[in-house]
Amino acid sequence: VQLQASGGGLVEPGGSLTLSCGAYGGPINIWRFGWFRQRPGKAREFVAAIDWIGLMIDYEDAVKGRFKIFRDNAKNEVFLEMNDLKVEDTAIYYCAAQNRRDVARDESIYEEWGQGTQVTVSS
């Protein structure tokens, strides 16, 4: 499975964006997914993760209540809806996948990675 992230852009504080992670080369119905981000000058960090069917979800504390991860296995896509964006959400966002069913936030275990999409929050 190959991943392609898209949907990034420039948005004002308080605005919204929805990122998409398209999977190619095989079905994703038994893969778990995660979204990670790398803010300027910082290491890549966990943002959100979802299990193979969308029943178990995990969020980093700073995005809880603002971001929503969900998936459409029929369309081979995973999404990250981002609301009430803050300047500190500015980062390159990456999607990742692993051929396991449960949810996980440890980036070292993910096998496949998308190329990243830039999100810039600025007035």
Query: Total helix count?
Result: 0
C-alpha-based Rg, rounded: 13 Å
Following the backbone from N to C, one meets helices and strands in this order, namely EEEEEEEEEEE
Oligomer: single chain
Number of beta strands: 11
Sheet having the most strands: 7 strands, mixed
Task: Note the gap between the termini.
Answer: 37 Å
Q: Roughly what percent helix?
A: under 10%
Strand content: over 45%
**Overall pLDDT metric:** 95
- Shape descriptor reads globular
Low-confidence stretches: none
Which class best fits the helix and strand makeup?
A: mainly beta
Could you give a quick summary of the protein structure above?
The protein is mostly beta strands and 123 residues long.
